[in-house]
Amino acid sequence: MKSEEILKLLGSGAKVYDLEHVRYPGMPAFDPVQPGLNYFLYRHHENYYLPEKNGPRTSSSGLIVMTDQSGTHMDALCHQAADLVLADGTKVNPSVETPWGFSKLDASELPIMLRKGVLVDVAAYVKDPLPEEHEITLEEFKKAVEKEGITFGKNDVVLVRTGYGKYWKEEEKYKKAAGVSKEVSRYLEDKCFAVGADNLAWDVPERRDPETNSLLPGHLYLIAKKGIYIIENIFLEELSRDKVYEFLFVGLPLKFKGATGSPFRPVAIS
To answer: Whole-prediction pTM value?
Structure first.
């Protein structure tokens, strides 16, 4: 899409949908990456208020402590490996996986996304929300795509809605969200650029793949084997409400050197 086309779209009354959740201490986070966020206000206006010396201006600032796998975020390709091999064939060793992070395929290499996005609103066609810890079947996924009349290709972003985004501030409920089955992940592995879902982990965290004995098989097949990005904890309720199934997807990761993922600022424009 050319810049002129984007400006024309924005000037034509297009609506911008915010797809990021609010970040706060105590927000839902996958158990292995707790705590998701801590914030400390360590510089206070009161401590710097010396009008006789510095005039009326004061300042305040805080310290953010968070994991790179919390909140609305995008996984870097170094985040997953298959038999200690990364997506590009690199063997994991101490020169690649260092105490200060990864030397390649890290979050600093994550792409800016300006692509076609599609919403596959499975919850709207099955049950909203889906049953707790339900694995979305390939049949359910294809049925939603068919009913919406959407198409997507290798350069596009596919977002799957389980209906649990509305429970972001109800941690225990949100952590029981439905997820995407291995069959759907395998189906998508050569059909899109990136995927995302309104849950903690794309997959159902505690469901083990009997074939490989792996937890999170979608991560294995999509990231480690195919180099397809996964976006987690994405907010899809407003797109679902307005029945917006195809849109311009814009997503901006932060360039954290060595990190396994990045906070992600996604919007949909329709």
So the answer is: 0.94
